[in-house]
Amino acid sequence: MSGGDDVLLEVRNLSKAFPGQVALSGVDLNVRAGEVHAIVGENGSGKSTLIKVLAGYHQPDAGSVVELASSASGPTAIGFVHQDLALVEGMSALDNLAFGRKFATKWGGIDTAKELERATSLMERLGRQIDLTVPLAELQPVERALVAMARALDGLGERAVLVLDEPTAALPAPEVGRLFRAIEEVKSEGGGVLYVSHRLDEVFEVADRVTVLRDGRRVATVEAGELDHEGLIELMLGHSLEAGFDQDVREPRGGVALGVRGLSGGTVKDFSADVLAGEIVGVAGLAGSGREDLARALVGALPGTTGTVNVDGSVLRRRNPRAAIDAGLALVPRDRARYGAILEHSVAENVTLPQLKPLLRRMRIHRRRELADVQGWIQRVDIRPADPEMVLGAMSGGNQQKAVLARWLRARPRVLLLDEPTQGVDVGAKAAIHKLLREAASEGLALLVCSAETEDLVDLCDRVLVMRAGRVEVELKREELTNSRIVKESLGIARRIGQTARPGSGIAA
């Protein structure tokens, strides 16, 4: 192994080509003991392919070298925590920690006491104790992430390399710090962490070094302290963010497109608001505030929902997603892989699925007509590569999300609900998605954006409704929108002077 400075993992000349696409080309990087090395880049830059090569999912091209250090105790081990965590939520943390290895046995059965001792030790290593016997579905998101980390470290020893792929993508902001403390525990033991993330604030908080990938190539490896946000974005994109995306000025808004009164379901207790045609309204709030259940409740995907929802003045009589779509109310859901797309199908099949009738000819889909239609949408939303027949699951998260947006924009709804629309996408794709949504609003579409990402809300929205305990507590106008203000209002610690309910404010009187 050629690297110095106590290198645990070294990658040299790593390349990987697929038919018609070079995913990685000559990438060099290493991970040292006691450091967090962050990997950043746009969606499609090669981050996911790099992780899959290290995990053995893809075989690298000839000439690629991946080496793990050796010591007196044996070779350095490597463990992975993937973005979807790959946990079985109906089973306990104890069972999940044992998957991938044999259970300890006693008298022909599982030695539960020994398994519990081992699991407790693993969680102590990460500085957190949880109830290991309850189903994972009952744990907090950060606790599930820590279980995945503990499972990755199980049996690796102290000087291990831990690869974390978007570990905070599904975590509310207050829980991110707990995960970072667990990462510090790994560092303090002499381990190394390869940290892949699109959240640049987190990169600056947790990383010691940063490697930037662009179009499958390493463009820089820099000490984190030598970078700022603007410099990092320019390395990722090859230009400044402002040079690539100009904010559009929208036309004056129209009448009420979405009217909601007394909506209740799940963590939503009493939501009332109006959204005007051509307006982008954000919804903020901590976990449990109602924000995370609101979009599903509005389209009738949450059982037991009550209240009144109307689109363009027509009340939704039937409360189910099909009726909502027919009325002009569409949803881009938070969990893209499970509810937003069919990853095994092509881009064309995903984009056209809700509205096939215009493509039918003699009761069959006219393929040339379909491909021509989809090609137009690919150009409009900038899906890369621009191949309508490519399997959606083979694309980056940002391009998958653009395809989901194209699907619903093509259906021409009156109101578009978006639940965490930029979750798991990089800064470039995020800016592109924001531009698409502004353009849609300028054409008269009403948008309601539910997001834990306060920066998204500040950048995108005309006003923001802050939820606490299932209700809208505060409305913030455009001139009042800042990250800190939204966070303070979400926590309930901001001073409220004159912020009572008022007609047309979107807050129930």
Characterise this structure.
The chain is α/β, with parallel strands linked by helices. The chain has 3 domains: 238 residues, P-loop containing nucleotide triphosphate hydrolases (Rossmann fold, 3-Layer(aba) Sandwich), CATH 3.40.50; 178 residues, Rossmann fold, CATH 3.40.50; 71 residues, no CATH class. The strands form 7 sheets. A 6-stranded mixed beta sheet has the order 7-10-11-3-12-13, sandwiched between helices. The chain has a 6-stranded mixed beta sheet with strand order 19-22-23-16-24-25, with helices on both faces. Helix 13 packs across helix 14. The longest helix is centred in the middle third of the chain and has 16 residues. The C terminus is likely disordered.
List keywords for this structure.
single chain, 509 residues, alpha/beta, Rossmann fold, six-stranded mixed sheet, 26% strand, disordered C terminus
Compose a concise summary of this entry.
With 509 residues, this protein is of the alpha/beta class. It folds into 3 domains: 7-244, Rossmann fold (3-Layer(aba) Sandwich); 248-328 and 413-509, P-loop containing nucleotide triphosphate hydrolases (Rossmann fold, 3-Layer(aba) Sandwich), CATH 3.40.50.300; 342-412, no CATH class.
**Uncertain parts:** 495-509
Coarse structural class? alpha/beta
CATH superfamily of the largest domain: P-loop containing nucleotide triphosphate hydrolases
Query: How many distinct beta strands?
Result: 25
Mean pLDDT: 85
Assign the CATH architecture of the largest domain. 3-Layer(aba) Sandwich
Number of domains in the coordinates?
3
Tell me the helix content.
25-40%
How much of the sequence lies in strands comes to 25-35%
Taking the alpha carbons of the first and last residues, their distance comes to 68 Å
Q: What top-tier CATH class of the largest domain fits best?
A: Alpha Beta
Number of helices: 17
